[in-house]
Amino acid sequence: NAGVMQNPRHLVRRRGQEARLRCSPMKGHSHVYWYRQLPEEGLKFMVYLQKENIIDESGMPKERFSAEFPKEGPSILRIQQVVRGDSAAYFCASSPLAGAEFSYEQYFGPGTRLTVT
Amino acid sequence: AQTVTQSQPEMSVQEAETVTLSCTYDTSESDYYLFWYKQPPSRQMILVIRQEAYKQQNATENRFSVNFQKAAKSFSLKISDSQLGDAAMYFCAYILRGNNDMRFGAGTRLTVKP
Prior knowledge:
The structure holds two protein chains of two kinds. Helices cover 0% and strands 48% of the residues of chain A. In chain A, the strands form two sheets. In chain A, strands 2, 4, 5, 6, 9, 10 and 11 form a seven-stranded mixed beta sheet that branches. By secondary structure, chain A is mainly β. By secondary structure, chain B is mainly β. Chain B is 0% helix and 53% strand. Chain B has strands at residues 3-5, 10-14, 19-21, 24-26, 32-39, 46-52, 60-61, 64-69, 74-79, 88-96, 103-104, 108-113. Chain A binds chain B through residues 33, 35, 40-45, 48, 55-56, 58-59, 89, 91, 93, 102, 104-108, 110-111, 113, and chain B through 4, 33, 35, 37, 42-45, 47, 50, 91, 93, 95, 97, 100-107.
């Protein structure tokens, strides 16, 4: 059973460009979470999605950031007009359906390191 | 505010010795789950151990065990017989039952000396 997959692993963007980060959850998982990790800090929650629905985006910056999890395909975290402060590692996690064993657990992908030059 | 505090930014242990990493958290809720994650230089987040708050018995996973003190809101990680491969950042985290956002501490960098 493949784990959570994220691509690309490394992404370099110039200021003002768009960044698209992709996440494929573990097989059988329908819940996806995005976290951001700034250097020397812990992970900070951004958004929680189920298929075709944003459930909780309380940690998402109000501007330039958006996320989706379409019916088909991976979840996408999109950052428009990137700035230097967006440079960070972005982690995706997935969890099984509510009620399943260990449904509270989140399984993390390897992360995407975004560098804005 | 619901926060996680790891008071030791860095720790060091001799190979084969035992080390304890501290973690305290702050929540007024009673139903939650606690975790320790390991993040090696590859940056992959690896689940080390989990604890359900309603369980009094401390979780153990091979050389890893926790000391869960619910009243004190403390959740320390003990690593026995430390190995070179244990060197990593360790993050303490918790999530409230029914919530979506896992809260993380700032991490403790563990160095293992040969």
